[in-house]
Task: inverse folding
């Protein structure tokens, strides 16, 4: 089964925005364009009102140019934003806690102060 097919909804990254549309990348081969007419059902004055460079969004494939590895895309009929909830991880304190930091901090401070003193002495010479 082909990875990209007409009508399929896939996730990609917005790589460039021009006044006429937004370019996307999907993998090491395929790129695509969302023409400004495929951004929204209503009037689109500025594409940045909908998406920005670096956004990871879902798009619908309207057409495929296999020779050029280029997809014609749309977001106007789908929920294109990725609304995944952040996974919460329970914070588990290690058995030693901050003890290692507490023990090492004085020697780190002493070492850095010595570096600063040596640097200022070399400037005075």
Result:
């Amino acid at each position: 089964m082909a990875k990209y097919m007409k009508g399929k909804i896939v996730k990609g990254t917005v790589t460039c925005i021009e006044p006429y549309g937004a370019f996307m990348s999907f993998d090491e081969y395929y790129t695509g364009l969302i023409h400004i007419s495929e951004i929204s059902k209503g009037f689109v004055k500025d594409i940045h009102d909908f998406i920005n460079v670096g956004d990871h969004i879902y798009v619908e494939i309207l057409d495929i140019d296999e020779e050029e590895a280029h997809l014609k895309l749309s977001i106007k009929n789908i929920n294109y934003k990725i609304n995944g909830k952040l996974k919460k991880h329970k914070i588990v304190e290690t058995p030693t806690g901050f003890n290692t930091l507490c023990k090492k901090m004085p020697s780190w401070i002493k070492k850095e102060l010595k570096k600063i003193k040596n640097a200022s002495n070399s400037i005075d010479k």
Summary: Residues 99-124 form the longest helix (26 residues).
